Amino acid sequence: MGYLTRMLIEKKWRENGRKDALRLARQPRPEGVAAEAGLAYLPDGDPMHTLNLYRPEGAQGPLPTVVDIHGGGWMYGDRELNRNYCMALAAQGYAVMGMSYRLLPQVDLRGQVQDVFASLRWLEEHGAEHGFDLSRVLLTGDSAGGHLAGLAACIQKSPALQALYGVQPLKRGFTALAIAHGVCDVYRFAFLRPPFDQAVSREYQKLLFGPRWKLSPLYGHASFEDTAPGLDLPPILVIASEPDRYYRQSRRLIDYLDRSPWEHEVILWKREQGEQLTHVFEVGWWDWPESRETNRRMLDFFDRAVEK
Q1: What is the pLDDT of residues 142-185, one digit of tens each?
Q2: pLDDT beyond 70 at 193
Q3: Is the backbone peptide bond immediately before 105 cis, with ω within 30 degrees of 0?
Q4: Confidence tier at 188 by pLDDT (50, 70, 90)
Q5: Beta-sheet strand order (sheet of 264-269)
């Protein structure tokens, strides 16, 4: 059952890859943005250890920083997947970084977190040379990238988690965190019907934590609800939509934050506002009116956090 389940998961992401390639080929690119692509953040020659930088053309001086972690079920995607989305954010007056990171099953969750922090450390060391103001940083991610963004924000604030994941904290933290359609509960994939929900969940546990997943030191220290309690987290924005097939994940996160002490806001698109507003619509289709509004509201949230 496990082998078959993994084959089905991998097939799904290959299909998504073909769809995304067509979307990116047909989609207009945002104008007025300068890009630096394929910069290595680790000197090992691995193409998954590279990142892209984006700034408005002709912009002078350091700009507030947006760091984007792409989604793809932890198994798919690279720095090019969210290229147009990152360019759309940069066009609004921001310096944006989007990185590749190694994927399952090449590495486990610890390896992915280490890649994310390695890219952030590169930005910390070199970002100023490229016009990034690292005193103002919005960390965002969509879907599985939303999970990684939330986890990175928690790790930044927790020496215990830093030791567990084998990373060092950044000299400067994050001003704000935005989780878009995040899959932040990595133990339960309730959007699938039985028995596939349990089969897919079990296979993902093996991929994220190792074959003996319940014995992994990371198990129980990976979802947002595991890692956030007791931490001094920055303001949090959750972006969600009811037509999203993963909406239960967003709803769970929103309900958890509503019971928490952390400052947070929610952008929630209702089903009656459009059935097309599905999973990560504002990332994949940046030029839709609803996407422009969502992303503008996210940047407004960031600006308000900077002013505090």
Answers
A1: 999 999 999 999 999 999 999 999 999 999 999 999 999 999 99
A2: no
A3: yes
A4: confident
A5: 33-40, 50-56, 95-99, 63-69, 132-142, 176-180, 236-241, 264-269
Residue 184 DSSP one-character state? -
Owner of token pair 């999970």: 147
- The SS3 assignment for 93 reads coil
| Amino acid making up residue 89 | L
- Domain count along the chain: 1
By DSSP bridging, strand 50-56 and strand 95-99 are: antiparallel
* pLDDT for 192 beyond 60: no
CATH of residue 73: 3.40.50.1820
Q: 185: domain range?
A: 2-307
**Of 74, 105, 111, which is closest to residue 2 (Cα–Cα)?**
105
